[in-house]
């Protein structure tokens, strides 16, 4: 019995040491992965990297990590318009089946899903913020975007008719969709009226409708779905063979 108790104590101690070593190793790996991702994506701040699953060391031995969560704040994506950028307030991605090299210099996820948020003031930069002529004597421009409820964007439009600015802005509910995996499209569900004047639909939609490309996301992930919310435009992203480093 005494020998059995000693054996049990040894097993418990070794098990505890293994857990400690495993956690130290995973913390080191998370730091290395974060630094590599920062360098690869030219980030201004170090991202949050969390390696899931236990034990970590057995995953390392197999050369594949089951699940890695990545969080990036204030990511600047490209827009396809020269050097113009659009800021993503927060980007969170869940990477599955991550294969890596021995020194973590390269890592590729089999699949990735996640979420991102673009603030309304960022999206407003794409809209017609300068007054545009939509009919003889009538100009209009978008001055605000906000949550319209039920996944819609509320577009605020100011108009001037025959030299007189309308006393109240016109509000339009718009649907927001993803086009070709890289573009957010905002399209009015119904056209606004400006001082009771009849204006061609195509001219009005030049003001109310617009598109914003969002490209160059980490590892080549793409836009999947989009929906308006109080915080901004919430975007679901996805990808396969997503490169995290190297």
TrEMBL record:
It comes from the Bacteria. It holds the Pfam family LmeA. InterPro entries: DUF2993. This is DUF2993 domain-containing protein. It comes from Streptomyces sp. SID14436. The lineage of its organism: Bacteria, Bacillati, Actinomycetota, Actinomycetes, Kitasatosporales.
